[in-house]
């Protein structure tokens, strides 16, 4: 029987956007960059376009866009904006920079 540690856990991230706005594109690019740097091989990004699926905003209580939601590992965390402040994003998602 193996026990999975948080180091090996796959992070499930959901980015809510509304179409291909500059902020949405920037947020996704920033998110991918941070994940490759800090969570390489241990993350999944799901992008949800609320122009196509507005009903999905309710489940995660999305009030502004773009919004990033960390589903796994728990607890759920949210960050609003284009994710351009790397330090704020890492602290918000509770990602510890690799030493």
From TrEMBL:
Location of the KaiB domain: 14-95
Record field: transmembrane: none
SMART domains for the chain: KaiB
One Pfam family this sequence matches: KaiB
Family annotation (PANTHER family): CIRCADIAN CLOCK PROTEIN KAIB2, KAIB-LIKE PROTEIN 1
Protein name: Circadian clock KaiB family protein
Organism listed in the record: Hymenobacter aranciens
């Amino acid at each position: 029987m193996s026990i999975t540690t948080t180091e090996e856990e796959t992070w499930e991230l959901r980015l809510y956007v509304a179409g291909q706005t500059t902020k949405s594109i920037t947020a996704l690019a920033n998110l991918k960059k941070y994940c490759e740097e800090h969570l390489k091989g241990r993350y999944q990004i799901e992008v949800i376009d609320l122009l196509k699926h507005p009903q999905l905003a309710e489940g995660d209580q999305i009030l502004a866009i773009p919004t990033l939601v960390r589903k796994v590992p728990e607890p759920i965390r949210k960050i609003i904006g284009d994710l351009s402040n790397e330090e704020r994003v890492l602290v918000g998602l509770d990602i510890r920079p690799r030493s």
